[in-house]
Design brief:
Strands 2-1-3-5-4 form a 5-stranded mixed sheet. It is globular. It folds into 2 domains: 366 residues, no CATH class; 165 residues, no CATH class. By secondary structure, the chain is mainly alpha-helical. Keywords: Endoplasmic reticulum, Glycosyltransferase, Membrane, Signal, Transferase, Transmembrane, Transmembrane helix. Its main location: endoplasmic reticulum. Belongs to the glycosyltransferase 22 family. PIGB subfamily. GO terms for molecular function: alpha-1,2-mannosyltransferase activity.
Length: 549
C-alpha cells in the first residue's frame, strides 16, 4: 500500500463528497440514507423496494450509515449540518478505495511505471467525481470490485497465493451482496481462475473450498441481516434478480443493445476515451501481455452481458471504469516514451511526476470544468430547497407537499423534522412500477396521472379550499404493501407549503388555481439546463399566505 497515494485519495474523495451540492440519482437518498434514517430515528421515506410483499433490497448497504446517524443522535448533533456531512465523509472514505487499489491492478497488469498515471486518471475522472463519493450502492460496488481484482493473479507466471485468493473471494462476495448483478463480473473471473488451476488438483481443491465457504458465509450473513430487518425469512438477492429479469425493470426505461458502447462508455471516460481505445490496441498487440488480455476480456464480457438487458444505466457498468483507466494509462505512458525518444526532452513534461506528454495531460484534464459544473451548479436547486425547508420555523411548516416527479429531492434524511414524520404531513407523488402484472404500455403511475392533466388532478384529489389547520393527507400516494391492484383513489389535503418545479406553473390553469386559493411564491432557485420538461423552470416554494410569513 502506498501511503502517500492513500492520503491523497482520501483527501480528494472526502473533499468532493462534502463539496457536492447537486442532485444526480434518487437512489443516493432513497436506497441508502432514508432507510438508515428510518432505522435510527424512526421515520424515513421507504420506497416500494423496501415495503412490497417481496422486498428486493438488502439492508446491508444502508446499514453502513446507521452508526453515523446513531452517533450523531447520541451527541445531539442530528439537528445540525453534521447530519448531512457525516454520511458524506463515510462515503468519501469508501470511495477512496477505488483510487488506491486501482493502482495495484495497474502494477500487476502493466508494471510500476503505469501506476502514477492510473492514479491521475482515477482522481481526475469526470464520472468518478460525479458518482463515486455519493451514497449509492453502485459506488461501493465499484470500490469492492476494484479491491477484489487487485488480488486476482493476473500474471500466470507468479506463484499461487491462497491468502490472495481468499481476499479476492471476500471482496467479490461483498460486492455481490451489495449488488447481486456484480456476479456477472465474477463468473468470468472465477472461470479464468479455475482454468488456471486445472493442472494443479491441490490448488484447485483449496480454491474451491475457499470460494464455497466464503460464498456460503456471505449468503448466510445476508439472510440473517435481511430476515432480522424485514421480520420474516427473506433472501433479497433472489427477489432482486427476479424483478430485474422481469418486465418491471423496463418500466424505468429501455435502451438499444449498443447503449453502453455508444453512450455510456464515451460519457464515463470523456476525454480519456481516445487513450482507452489506443490502450486497448496496444494491450492486444505485441506490447500487451496475457494479463492485459484477461483484463480486456473481462471488460468485453461484462458489457456484452449487461447489453442483453433492456433497462440500462451508465452507473451499472461503473465497476469497469477503473479497468478502463488502467488501459488508458498504458496508452498515455507508452505515448510519452515514444515521443521522448524523438523530441527534445524540454518539450516534454520531463520534470513532471506523471510520465505524460503535455498535450495529452491537457486533454485528460479538460473534463475537470465539466465536473465542477455538475457538482456545484447543475441540478443544485432540488438539494438546496431541502436546506431551505430545514430552516423554516415549525409553525410556518406544519405540512409539505412535493408536486414534482417522484423522488425529485432528498427527504427526511436531509429535512429531519420529527414533527413531520407522518407520511400525511410530508408527501410526494408516487411512481410505483406495475408490480401486480399490469401491462407496461398501458400502466400509468401517480406521477403520470398528475402530469397528464395537473389541473384536473388538483380539482379531483384536493378539497376546493385550504383548511388552515393543515391536517395530514389521508392517502397522498399508493401504499405498495397493498395486495389489491393500484388505483387512483388518492386523497390530499392542501399543505401549508408546496414545492414544485417552475414548469408546472406553465400548465394551463395551475398558477391561477394556486393563487385563487391563497398560495404565494416565497422561494425560487434555478437549476440550469434540464432535459426533462417536467423538471424545468427551477425549484419553487409556494406557501399558503393567510397565516403570514
Amino acid at each position: 500500500m502506498r501511503a502517500r497515494q492513500a492520503i491523497l485519495a482520501l483527501a480528494v474523495r472526502v473533499t468532493l463528497a462534502l463539496a457536492t451540492w447537486s442532485f444526480f440519482q434518487p437512489d443516493e437518498y432513497f436506497q441508502s440514507l432514508e432507510v438508515a434514517h428510518q432505522i435510527v430515528f424512526g421515520y424515513g421515506k421507504l420506497t416500494w423496494e423496501w415495503v412490497s410483499p417481496d422486498p428486493i433490497r438488502s439492508i446491508l448497504y444502508p446499514a453502513l450509515n446507521v452508526p453515523v446517524y446513531w452517533l450523531l443522535g447520541v451527541l445531539g448533533l442530528d439537528h445540525t449540518n453534521a447530519l448531512i456531512w457525516g454520511p458524506k465523509i463515510l462515503h468519501g472514505i469508501l470511495a477512496s478505495g477505488t483510487d488506491i487499489w486501482v493502482c495495484e491492478i495497474a502494477q500487476r497488469v502493466f508494471g510500476d511505471r503505469y501506476v502514477s498515471t492510473t492514479m491521475l486518471l482515477s482522481l481526475t475522472s469526470f464520472f468518478h467525481g460525479l458518482c463515486l463519493s455519493r451514497s449509492m450502492s453502485n459506488s461501493l460496488e465499484t470500490t469492492l470490485t476494484t479491491i477484489a481484482l487487485s488480488h486476482f493473479p493476473w500474471d500466470t507466471s507468479t506463484s499461487y497465493s491462497r491468502v490472495q485468493i481468499r481476499k479476492l473471494c471476500i471482496f467479490a462476495a461483498l460486492g455481490c451482496a451489495v449488488r447481486p448483478t456484480n456476479a456477472i463480473i465474477w463468473l468470468y473471473v472465477f472461470v479464468i481462475l479455475f482454468w488456471r488451476f486445472k493442472a494443479e488438483p491441490r490448488a484447485l481443491f483449496s480454491c474451491t473450498i475457499d470460494v464455497s465457504v466464503i460464498c456460503l458465509s456471505t449468503v448466510t450473513l445476508l439472510y440473517a441481516l435481511d430476515s432480522a430487518y424485514y421480520g420474516k425469512a427473506t433472501i433479497t438477492p433472489l427477489s432482486f434478480l427476479r424483478i430485474n429479469a422481469s418486465a418491471v425493470s423496463l418500466f424505468y426505461g429501455s435502451s438499444p443493445w449498443h447503449y453502453y458502447i455508444s453512450q455510456a462508455i464515451p460519457i464515463m471516460t470523456m476525454t480519456a476515451l481516445p487513450y482507452v481505445l489506443h490502450g486497448t490496441w496496444l494491450a492486444l498487440g505485441p506490447s500487451g501481455s496475457v494479463a492485459s488480455k484477461k483484463l480486456l476480456g473481462l471488460i468485453v464480457w461484462t458489457i456484452c452481458v449487461y447489453s442483453m438487458a433492456g433497462h440500462k444505466e451508465w452507473r451499472f457498468i461503473h465497476p469497469l471504469l477503473p479497468l478502463m483507466h488502467v488501459v488508458a494509462a498504458k496508452s498515455l505512458v507508452d505515448l510519452h516514451r515514444s515521443v521522448r525518444s524523438t523530441r527534445h526532452p524540454r518539450k516534454i513534461m520531463a520534470q513532471f511526476r506523471f510520465p505524460i506528454n503535455a498535450r495529452d495531460l491537457m486533454l485528460v484534464l479538460l473534463g475537470l470544468p465539466f465536473l465542477c459544473y455538475v457538482l456545484f451548479f447543475h441540478a443544485r436547486a432540488p438539494v438546496e430547497v431541502v436546506h431551505y425547508l430545514r430552516g423554516v420555523p415549525m409553525e410556518d411548516m406544519r405540512s409539505v407537499g412535493f408536486l414534482m416527479p417522484c423522488h425529485s429531492t432528498p427527504l427526511h434524511a436531509y429535512l429531519h423534522r420529527p414533527e413531520l414524520a407522518d407520511d400525511g404531513r410530508v408527501w410526494s407523488l408516487g411512481c410505483e412500477p406495475p408490480l401486480r402484472g399490469q401491462a407496461i404500455g398501458e400502466y400509468h403511475d401517480q406521477t403520470d396521472v398528475f402530469y397528464d392533466s395537473p389541473v384536473v388532478y388538483l380539482e379531483r384529489h384536493f378539497p376546493k379550499q385550504v383548511d388552515p389547520s393543515f391536517p395530514p393527507s389521508r392517502r397522498p400516494s399508493t401504499d405498495p404493501r397493498e395486495i389489491t391492484s393500484f388505483g387512483n383513489d388518492w386523497s390530499h389535503e392542501w399543505p401549508q407549503i408546496l414545492v414544485i418545479f417552475g414548469s408546472l406553473l406553465s400548465e394551463p390553469g395551475v398558477r391561477e388555481l394556486l393563487q385563487r386559493i391563497g398560495y404565494r411564491e416565497v422561494w425560487v432557485k434555478e437549476s440550469g439546463w434540464e432535459g426533462d420538461r417536467r423538471r424545468q423552470g427551477g425549484v419553487r416554494v409556494w406557501r399558503y399566505s393567510d397565516t403570514g410569513y
